[in-house]
């Protein structure tokens, strides 16, 4: 079992017994009776377990409600995309949700379009500038020249 969980359970049991012992001993001393003290100890322990269980249930219910609210919130999040209509090719700005089916009506032809969402992967590439070792390409040499708008490369024979 999880060490953290075991520690939490042992801690909880220790606190429960400590509280029960304190209350049981106090009432036992006041009543000058060991059986009454022991009875109060048992009663306190049982009450604490019942209250603890009740609080736990409430806690997990609250957690579940929060999770559902989060999911509902996530479903409402929409990202705008410019998509062309499948009938007339007009570009429509469409809010897209990743959790629900997306359908939109074209602003031009009023046809209903269903949005097909696809994910693809690519390799991560490095720009050539980072790959070439400095000094490998000597820009000073006459063979390599960079073109600019002000100084277009002249082709000479
Ligand atoms: Zn259209």
Q: Your description of this structure?
A:
The protein has two domains: 3-76, no CATH class; 79-114. The chain has three helices and four strands; from the N terminus they run ααββββα. The chain has helices at 3-31, 34-76, 128-131, and strands at residues 79-84, 91-96, 103-105, 112-114. Helix 1 runs antiparallel to helix 2. The radius of gyration is 37 Å and the shape is elongated. The mean pLDDT is 85. The chain binds zinc ion. Zinc ion binds at residues 85, 87-88, 90, 106, 108-109, 111. Zinc ion binds next to loops.
Question: Mind sketching the topology for me?
Answer:
Layout: H1 3-31, H2 34-76, E1 79-84, E2 91-96, E3 103-105, E4 112-114, H3 128-131
Antiparallel strand pairs: 1-2, 3-4
Q: What is this entry, summarized?
A:
The protein is 48% helix and 11% strand. It has 157 residues and is mainly α. Helix 1 (3-31) runs antiparallel to helix 2.
Q: Total number of helical segments?
A: 3
Helix content: 40-55%
Percent of residues in beta strands: 5-15%
**Which strand order do you get reading across the main beta sheet?**
1-2
Which compounds are bound in this model?
A: zinc ion
Estimate the global geometry from the Cα principal axes. elongated
Q: From the alpha-carbon coordinates, what is the Rg to the nearest angstrom?
A: 37 Å
Unreliable stretches: none
Count of spatially separate domains: 2
Structural class: mainly alpha
What separation lies between the terminal Cα atoms? 82 Å
Please describe the biggest sheet, giving its number of strands, its sense, and whether it closes into a barrel.
2 strands, antiparallel
Number of strands: 4
Question: What string, H for helix and E for strand, traces the elements in order?
Answer: HHEEEEH
Mean pLDDT: 85
